[in-house]
Write the structure tokens for this entry.
Amino acid sequence: MEIIAQTPVTNRARINGHFGEWLQGRMGPEGPVVLVSLPCPEFWCEVQARPQHGLGIPPDHPILTKRRVSEILDTLGVSHDLSISISGNIPFGAGLGASTASLVALVKAVADNARSADSISQICLTTEGATDPLMHEDFDSFLWSSREGRVVRHMHTPPTFEVIGGLWGETEKTDPNDTCFPDIGDLIQPWHRAVRAGSLVDVARIASVSARRTTALRGPTDDPTEAIAGEFGALGHIRAHTGSARGLLFEPGTVPPHVIPRLEALGYCHITRFVTEA
């Protein structure tokens, strides 16, 4: 069937990022790379599309290049007569979902929110070879296969935590061919039980085990996050499976003073503090 390209009305879409993962690793020694992302309202990308003659797009965006945008518009059957503007505050290579947020915001802006989450995930997967689940609502309530762009298992949303953290160490762009991640097959069922029960202690403990395994396998060996979590009495800690996002997990309202100055002194940047939503 012939696709007739249509130019959309002026439209914008804003997509929040995530802050590393609650869980990250392989589902069994030879299984797929899976994860449970941790939503974060503090980081976001917004794309606005306005009708114009020809395709106009900022020249220096690391993900939304003119070639990629053109290919996505062709896939969507949308006219190239658009002016695309991009704004946001997500650092790239940090494990905050910058690439996926950019792609999802673009699709939603130019397709007028008409595309399903599954179809958007396939566009992201085709574009980059791996994708975060940011096109889905409540994406912390399921186990996600990032190299396949699909939900592996539906579970429950984790209970509410207060998270404080930042970026520490080198940036690292996700390589879709990278499968060097720890086996977390034994953590999936305990995680399911912990989130179903709403246990802050158990959720934080399992997230910490997952983060610890990733650090043990992938480094860096001098990552201070777990030690800082112990120093301030956090329930646990999280990290990005690739990238530099690191966070401490607290029961809401229990973050002790001086955490931020301590993190700054240790070289964490883009420090943020937010409350997750159960």
